[in-house]
Structure formats: structure tokens, C-alpha cells
User: What shape does this take?
Amino acid sequence: MAVFSVNQDIYGIDLFEERRAGRSSAYLIRGSEPILVDPGSALSHQALEAGLGELGLRCQDLRHVIITHVHLDHAGGVGQLMQHAAEAVLHCHPRAKQHMVDPSRLEAGARAVYGDQTEQIFGKLLPVQADRVIIHEDGDHLETGDRTLVFYDSPGHAKHHTCVIDVKTRGIFSGDTIGIRYAREYTGWDFVYGFPTTTPSDFDPDVMLQTLDRLEALDLARVYHTHYGVSEAGEAFDFARRGTQAIRAMTEAMSPATPLAAIEEGLRELIRQDLAEAGRSITDVSPLALDIMLNSQGILVYLQKKALGKL
Assistant: This one.
């Protein structure tokens, strides 16, 4: 299903990132000033347009676009979208604005991870006009007349990450902060699985756990994951915290010289153990292979920065 109802005028749109269902969801908040959260990569634009169409809207109808952070699977298509959404303004973390206005460093960072496949995976990055970008400090509000959204600085996954709370539903648009919710249609498993994401280059487990504690204290009801769909808040915080603690414990026996392959195998084993403790008899975790590879790179960068005192 390309579009799914969340609640009270919030809808998820499957962006078919990686050309697969159940990977990434943008969120539309309907109202007097339609809001779109995390529009995904440039390659997701056609799926985004189709999803909006199912809901009786066009890109031109949007008035607000929000990105939780600048990673390309969340924000790589913003420049393209803003060309079509001429009446919209972009809302982001203060550290994110520079990358939206001039995406050259963002592209270089992505190429360091994905190499020559960057554009093939995410599409072309386009800049956003500086006067159409609004930055939000921790605790800032966006009032649209029928909606109140609150922005929270949420480092741990990325230093340019903001989570956004919808006051009306007590739900949080979590980006990559409160873990990944692996949907059945993505993994092929007959259950939903949750685990944190540690992709390069700002992952810090101690900071992540502090952020999780702070956000959980806000008494939220639901988590609107970009990857993918909706969790009850308690469930999402539990799997994000449990996985982050396990990763932190794993890194204590590692160093910057630990081979990437050893980190990958360590992560695979962590996930197997986590599944087993939940009563899931899964030993083949290959459906998560891409994230295991990317998460391992993020853990290695964390170990290197920690050794150099650059966290």
C-alpha cells in the first residue's frame, strides 16, 4: 500500500527508497497549511507525488516541508520538491540549513560512503533558496492555526538532527533517532523488528541514550518512524535503547584498528541474539545486510573519533 492512515489527518507515504516497499515513509499532515515531513531522496519524488495524489493533493499545495536531518534518504530530494512546492518553506535544524542551501559538502560526504553509486541510489541534489529555509532551535514551535509542532534538538545519530512532536496526537516524527522499524514487507519476515541505526558519521551511543531519555520523558503516545511506519512509543524507546546499549557494550572490546568485517559480524550476532531473546528463530539476517554494512561504518567512525577525542 503506497499510502497509509496514521491518525487525525496524518498519513504515511511509502517512498519506495531502494526501490523497495516498506523502507521509508514520508508523512503528510493535512490541514489549512499542509505539512510534509522527510520527503526522502530525489529518486523518491515520483512515489511522493503519487502518494500525495492519492490523498487529493499536489506538491504545489504544500506550505511546510520539514526534514529531521540531512541524510540523503530523508532530505536528498528536498531541492527538487521545493521547486514544485513554490509556496512552501523548509524547516530544519540550525546545522542543516547550510547543507540545504549548498549541498556540495553533503554530496561529498555521501560519496565517501556510497562512492560512484551515490547518484544512482539517491538521485541528484539540488539547492534550496536560503530565504525559503527556516531554522528551529531546541523547543521552537511551528503554529499553523490547526496544528502545533515542537522541535527538539536530538543528537546521537547526527548532530544536525531534530525530532518534531505533533502536540495534537502526542506523536513524534523521529527521523533516525528512535530506531528503525523494519516492516514485514521490507524484511520478508512475519513480524516487525526494531533496532537502532548507527550510520556515519556522527553516531555516539552515550549521546544517543541521553537523547532517548529526554524524549521519552515527554510522555509521547506514538513514534512516526521515517523507516518505516508507526510504533507505540514505549515499544520504540525500548528497542532503540536496548540496541544502543548492546552496541555500546560491543564497542568496549573494539578499537579504531578493528576490521570493518569484524564489526559487521559483531552486529549480525547482536541482532541474532536480540531476535532469539524475543523468541524469533531467525539466524539469516541478510534482509538487514545494507544497514549492517552502513551501521558498521558508523561504529568504526565513532571508534576513531573517540580515540582522537573528537566526539
Observations:
- The chain has one domain: 3-308.
- Residues 3-308 form a domain with the Metallo-beta-lactamase; Chain A fold (CATH 3.60.15.10).
